[in-house]
Amino acid sequence: MLTEDEATALVMEQLALVEEKYWRNRPERERPAGPECLFAIGRMDQVSFGWIAYWTFREIVEGRAKGPRLAGNGPFLVDRENGTVHQAGTGRSPQHYVTEYERARRTG
Question: pTM to 2 decimals?
Fold first, then answer.
């Protein structure tokens, strides 16, 4: 079973992949200097199967920016039993995706 710290690390791995895709079609000059990830977890909530991780731009999480919000950043669901990470959608409430995942786990 995963700890919250391990779940956080798994989500950060996913955010690194999201960042890779984000920069893929942008000019190199737009990239910030340094190793800091562009995205960060804003909040991790415990749910029945593990956690739901909400994320956005790091500057917003750290309070350094109030600018444009990120669109299409569905939260990640982390299953504490099997260590899987699933990105939820943005078209419905986070609770909808939690309920759907719980249902899928029960029906197997």
Answer: 0.86
